Amino acid sequence: MMVFLLWAIDLFQTIITVYMSWIYCVTDYLDPIAIKRVSLWAFTSIPLCNSLSSCITHLFIAHRIYEAAKQKRLAAGALCLSVFLTFSVGFSASLSGIIWHLSMIDVATPANVDSEDFPYHPLMLAWFATRLLVEAVLLASLSCLFVHQGTDFMDDYPSRIVKTGLLAIQCGALTTLFSFLSLVTLVSDPKTTLYIVFLLPSGRLYSNVVLTSINARARRVDPLQIANPTQALTKDIWAAAQATNVQTFDLTQMRTERVEGMESKCALDANSTAVLDEHTAKSHKHSNTQP
Question: Full-prediction pTM beyond 0.85?
Fold first, then answer.
């Protein structure tokens, strides 16, 4: 369900990005003031998509930390509170932009939109800051978890460089970097929309965090082979696999059954040959005794 939600959000964000590019670059190609005149809901809905993706991914990483933390209630409460706070700020900034029908020029002109009734840039700044803080905390916590518990579940990767890159993706290092760049560009130059360059890929990076973590699991849990599916599926799902011994046992059992079958067949063939030889000898003896 979580993967499907991330896929739907990324698909929607891709569609609105293509739609926005078509309106600005094709439909209004000969209109130089289209960026100022055309106010697209698609432009201000980008923070909404990233807020949803970040909320799902942050809860996923928080669940991993919750499973390994000693004080589970304290860790879960603090992480969930910070995640939903970040989502609320990003949702408020995006929803306010959609309601006020902002264009790119309006967003790039803080004097026009930063009023007491409509503080767009302060909301965006608060969202970038809280998101960066939450991702930094999750990155540090998950990195400490990997250092203390090890990464035996990724021993099947022969290259240390590939393993390091995948661990960086799972910890959320790339999403933290893009959040930092978005915050820096917005603070350093608020009269441009350069932060969108770092905001657009963030949704795909959040999806990569979840998918890479799921694909890195060495153990494939089968509910039909366990006595308590709920407990086995929720406990230590990133642990090292124990499926090799089971597979070896199955292959050994198959070879044993095959050898036993061949031995039985050989014994049957030997008995048949003995019976045939005895029958042939009796026939020869009977033919010799006749006059």
Answer: no
